[in-house]
Amino acid sequence: MRLKSYTAPSMAEAMQMVRQELGDDAIIVSTQRAAGGKGVRITAALEPTDIEDAISEMLADANRTPAAEMVREALVEHNLPVRLVDRLINAVRTSGIEDPQQACASALEAGFAFAPLPDHGAPRPFMLVGPPGSGKSMAVAKLAARSTLKNRRVGIITADNIRAGAAAQLAAFTRILKIELLTARGPDSLAKTIQQTQGQFDIVFVDSPGLNPFKSSDLDYLSALIEAANVEPILVLAAGGDPNEASEVGEAFGGIGATRLLATRLDTTRRLGSVMAAADAAPLMFCDVSAGPHVVNGVTSINAGIMARMILPQPEKPNAHSQTPRAEASPL
After folding, report:
1. The CATH number of the domain where 203 resides is what?
2. Same domain, residue pair 272 and 306
3. Which residue in 303, 243, 231 sits closest to 269, CA to CA?
4. Separation CA 118–CA 109 (nearest Å)
5. Is 319's pLDDT higher than 70?
6. Minimal CA–CA distance to 290: which of 325, 240, 246, 243?
7. How many CB atoms within 10 Å of residue 53?
8. pLDDT of residue 183
9. Collapsed DSSP state (helix, strand, coil) of residue 317
10. pLDDT per residue over 42-75, tens digit each?
11. Distance (Å) of CA 286 to CA 9, 17, 52, 120, 207
């Protein structure tokens, strides 16, 4: 259906304009006074012809493939925003890949960037940022454990002097890892601490306070921490939330410099729509995921193939060894 609006001094003149352009088959959708109360405004529509309907159906059928339909169902199940679903499905169709999981991986590779955090060393410290309760402190401990197991010199700094017990919680993990926990209070203190530790560590992780992404004073404070210490902000976001809300969270933290997204609590949720929406809105690169409570081996790098298997897992094949073969009857 094609819609068009007409404005004229009177209803009769507006109807005449409709008939002249759309013909007698036009359907009046709405009528209202024009802006300022002068004249009338008519919105009319013309039903598509049978030929137009046939062409639309042919194009839809041409674009509908088994792989695209399976991927679409999976993305909808994961609560992705409609705009993101449509974009990824177009990438699936363009790829021409028949296997749904491989087609999904190809679309994700085209639609997102993947940049795992290094475990050996980095020239700038990584500051984990995010809303309260997203799992930043635990993610710092897990990342530190991963690098420690690689025999790297790891530095951990907590800049969270807002949440009660935040430093004590992180200190419990650093004691196990035999890492000294450094404390910074405010932007100047953080900048000084990082400067004093230059050359002592291969990689440094900074735990920041959980701040409200919709409160300007919170974002201003976090921006001051980031700028003073010259760190790379990594957004830590728990999976399973509302995709629209997560999009706004991603935009807020992306606006102050976050570059990558580390998704947490993948073991307690069944849908990835929120973290995918956040990464798309900012935009942010996916780096790592946390899918378990354990500190050791607690984070895993992610790429398009791994994400595709999470979105569209292959059905489990029956185990041939678990089936007891029937004994053949022996001849008498």
Report:
1. 3.40.50.300
2. yes
3. 243
4. 20
5. no
6. 240
7. 11
8. 93
9. coil
10. 777 766 555 455 545 554 555 568 999 999 999 9
11. 57, 54, 42, 19, 19
